[in-house]
Each structure stands twice: as C-alpha cells, then as structure tokens.
Write a structure and sequence with these properties.
Elements (H helix, E strand, L loop, with lengths): L1 E3 L2 E10 L3 H8 L5 H4 L3 E10 L2 E12 L2 E14 L3 E6 L11 E12 L7 E11 L5 H38 L3
Antiparallel strand pairs: 1-2, 2-8, 3-4, 4-5, 5-6, 6-7, 7-8
Helix pairs in contact: 1-3
Amino acid sequence: MRRDGDIYVVHASGRVAADQRVAWDTLTDYDHLNEFVSDIQRSRVVERDGNRLIVEHVGAFRLLFVAMPVRVRLAVEHDPYQRVLARTEPGKVGAEEPTLKSVASQYRLTPLPAPPGGVRVDYDARFGLGDILPEFVDSLFGKQFVEHGLRRHFEAMLIEIERRQGALTSLTGPR
C-alpha cells in the first residue's frame, strides 16, 4: 500500500484452494460480510438491478485500541465469476454521512492451472478518507489504520473462501 497525497492506493493478492464459483459467492455475499469480516458491523444491498447493485458498508479500521469509523455507499458492478467493480455512490449510509469521500476498487478472480489449481484473488483500490481523523493524526497514523484494516479484511475473505470450499468438499467429496 502507498499513499499518493490524500489518496490511498492498495494492491493485495492471494491464492486460495477453492473453486472460482465458491470464491465469487463469498466475495459477493454482502449481506453476510459481518459474519466473517470482524471489522464490518453491517453490510447490505440496498438496490439491485441485474449485475448492478448499491451496497452500504458500516464498520471501522482498527489499530490497537483505536477505531476509525468507516461508512460507505458503493455502486457495484458484477462481471460474474471474474470481477467486482465498486465506486463511491453519493448519498447517506442509512441516516449517516459517509466517512470515505472516494472509492474505486476492483476484485479479480483468476483460475489457476492444476495442480495445484485454485483461484488467485487480486484486489486493487484507490480511496480517500473523509474528515475522519484530525490532520496530524491522519498524517502520522492514517496509513497504518488503513493498511491494517484492509489486510484484516482481505485475509478474512481468503479464509472464508477456503472455509466454504472445505465445507462444500466435505459434503460432496473431492472433485
């Protein structure tokens, strides 16, 4: 992760031992994200039109004993089983103002050849914080808050993908 002025630029990548469909279903399970990503308190789809959705997330970036609130409303576009694009959507998150002023992110799923197979999950994002932290705190610790929070989120996604694949495999047997 790096910072470009007021914009945070993020790239994360990981390999999971899972089918592309299981990875996709996990990434797009917005209404249950808070069950496996601990820093998300609430995530919900508020509008759906085919592969275009409006999704709201409420949570926090946490570092040690301090939490930075995160509220964002996203316009999400699905390219099924391959890519999820998300951009900031104007409007309140529930009854509250968003805390992120800009978001442009993308998840990509790439099947890997067997053996060992699996899927590579890539995440790229550019976003700017709103006035969440005082300027001096943001300049000293903003990057650490964001980096730690996004790492926890990404790792939780990968763990849940593999957990779901394991649960599916134990029910159906190996493919």
